[in-house]
């Protein structure tokens, strides 16, 4: 066989191999996947919100790549602790993921000495998204700026109510921090279903709410009024809304994130494969397009990147929680 013939033969074999990979059946994909059977993602929220969107957008693409179903398992309640405990005690067989946040892996451990799970029971897989929050008031509120809201709250010291996604959640801590910095006192009202807090704000049953960009259609329709963005930079979808920092509170920076975790003891091979496929999903332009209207920015990266994010959250919120005296108080 000549060199040219050999090269052509190798080229044909390579092409056939690539074609076979492209046309691989689900059974073939399962054989290449270190997990057999469906993979559940324990989601500590109800259906229909941003957590649902993130889980399905990434999970559906992972399912196609792995050849096995990736199915959300919604376990809301107790400030994410119900879902976290279920995932933390699941067998480390590669068939369970957990959609975690800064609340599940930083705030809950910092706030509570009697958690029903330990953060180290759930190991990092990949950071998925981050998002800003928006501080909004009812449309008939007298406050048109953050300064005006603070002035009203000082007059009604202790008389204003703000909604939260749960006691000790990120939007609870964010509002407590703002209250401390501005010298006001407010009452927190926890909600098990976040969208209900939006409804109550629009109806005037809440005075203020720190919420996600899912509120954007109501801002644009005039059903609520936006006062501030919680990140250091203005949000591209709301360029006219100033940040908290530029309204007199420099350094104020509150943001949320979603990430995948797995039960401790899950094999490195499985964790690496999950990371690879989730990263690929996050690079899909269709995923970015689905996230954008909800204020979600795709992240991606390594398990080590997620570990660093958690360490940064602990360093940020630990002193604040101690200063506010909130441990075992929420």
TrEMBL record:
Which N-terminal stretch is annotated as signal sequence? 1-24
Per UniProt, the keywords (alphabetical) are:
Signal
Specify the superkingdom.
Bacteria
Q: Keyword Nuclease, does the record have it?
A: no
Family membership: Belongs to the UPF0065 (bug) family.
What name does the UniProt record give this protein? ABC transporter substrate-binding protein
